[in-house]
Amino acid sequence: MPLYEHVLIARQDLSNTQAEGLIEHFSTVLVDNGGQVIENEYWGVRTLAYKINKNRKGHYAFLRSDAPSAAVQEMERLARLHDDVMRVMTVRVEKHEEGPSVQMQKREERGDRGDRDRGDRGDRGDRPRGDRGDRDRGDRGERRERTERI
């Protein structure tokens, strides 16, 4: 069966237990339709990048599943109809990553950004002096005289 990862965003005014109950509800939908939930994570309340249905925050939940496409479609259909769920995103993956998701890992454990050298600017070179560099009116020519309008 194909492997999927799902992210659900629920309304911010739910309690933590209600949000975790939503995870269990959608997990049972997948299991009832012939799939299995490999792992689920509750990411907590997070700030949204933009308002969704007048909400600035939402409860995030993450599911890893091994289910047929019919089960995933049914779960998405029910999630979109559910009043407490604001957004659903499902992605098909080749294999599930071992361990916790990137959102749940500590910054020290990620380690993929620590080796950057901030001093080198690569092939861009150094910036010229001043806030505009060599573009400071030199390439625009002289200003025209304004004609007075009455």
The protein's oligomeric status is single chain
**Spatial separation of the terminal alpha carbons:** 78 Å
- The overall pLDDT, averaged over residues, is 82
Strand segment tally: 4
Keyword list:
alpha+beta; Alpha-Beta Plaits; 4 strands; elongated
Explain this structure to me?
One of its GO terms (cellular component) is ribosome. Belongs to the bacterial ribosomal protein bS6 family. With 150 residues, the protein is an alpha+beta fold. It has helices at residues 16-32, 69-81, 107-110; strands at residues 3-11, 36-52, 55-66, 85-93. The longest helix is centred in the first third of the chain and has 17 residues, at 16-32.
Please render the helix and strand layout as text.
Layout lengths: L2 E9 L4 H17 L3 E17 L2 E12 L2 H13 L3 E9 L13 H4 L40
Antiparallel strand pairs: 1-3, 1-4, 2-3
Condensed summary:
By secondary structure, the protein is an alpha+beta fold. It has a domain at 3-95: Alpha-Beta Plaits (2-Layer Sandwich), CATH 3.30.70.60. It has helices at residues 16-32, 69-81, 107-110, and strands spanning 3-11, 36-52, 55-66, 85-93.
